[in-house]
Amino acid sequence: MGFFTDCANILIKYWPSFFLGIKTTLLIAFSGTIMGLALGLLVGGIRAIKLDKTAPSSAKMIKKVYDIISWIYIEVFRGTPMMVQALFLFYALRPIFNWTYIPAGIFVISINTGAYMAEIIRSGIQSIDIGQTEAARSLGMSNMQTMINVILPQAIKNAFPSIGNEFIVNIKDSSVLMIISITELMFQAKSIAGSTYKLTETYFITACVYLCMTMTTSFILNQIEKKMNHSKTTLPQSDTFAKTMNLAKEQEEHERTY
């Protein structure tokens, strides 16, 4: 009983510090995930675009160079620890941006998440039936229009569980940002443990807080997923293909009429 009494006393006395750590953790994780998703859409979306054989040689060369650069970016940030990335980027770019700790943390999370999101989005795009692209092209859409209006919305829907999982991962992995003195939950826990000399109790509370955050986030994401009518076990049968084909048929009938 003494263990849990000590935990309760620490929580009552230091709850403002825990609360500040929770707010900072959620801010960095959420902002980093959103910005990482935007970066992943850009990188993964362009990587998934296939140029026509009739495309100019200059466009093919630019696309090839882009694919090489994006591949290097993805492999480097997926193949190195976030802690190392945080230390390197914070101190290497600090003379340029002169940034404070929170923007630096969001930047590190965003860049790291973007590498994973790029592959998630690319996989989501590849899961879309090629017939939808052909139907969209038959309506006169360009590659970019097809990607933005037809493919990407479905790819994001298909990849939503993985995108949500990245958010949960970022809530936990943000703990490594304490290495650059960001006052997230783990940083606060370390400070409290150093003040009370009760390491086991403090880190037990911290583990429980992380568990509550991830379980709550998982529950919210599951509710959103249900709203989207997205199956957890199989990819959904999107209505976009049927709508696109109906538009193509209507155009054909219109052309036959006139």
Characterize the structure shown:
- This protein has one domain (2-257): Orthogonal Bundle (MetI-like fold), CATH 1.10.3720.
- The chain is elongated, with a radius of gyration of 23 Å.
- α2 packs across α4 (101-126).
- The model is unreliable at 230-238 (pLDDT under 50).
- The chain is an all-alpha fold and 258 residues long.
- The chain is 81% helix and 0% strand.
Question: What labels describe this entry?
Answer:
single chain, mainly alpha, MetI-like fold, 10 helices
Taking pLDDT < 50 over at least 5 consecutive residues as the criterion, the unreliable ranges are: 230-238
Question: What is the mean pLDDT?
Answer: 86
CATH homology superfamily name: MetI-like
Major pleated sheet:
none
Classified by CATH, the class is Mainly Alpha
In helices, the fraction of residues equals over 70%
Secondary-structure element pattern, one letter each: HHHHHHHHHH
Q: Give the overall form.
A: elongated
**Total helix count?**
10
| Helix/strand structural class | mainly alpha
**CATH third-tier fold name:** MetI-like fold
Number of structural domains: 1
Strand % is under 5%
Strand segment tally: 0
Whole-number radius of gyration? 23 Å
Give the second-level CATH assignment, the architecture. Answer: Orthogonal Bundle
How many angstroms separate the termini?
Answer: 86 Å
Structure, briefly:
By secondary structure, the chain is mainly α. Helix content is 81%, strand content 0%. Helix 2 packs across helix 4.
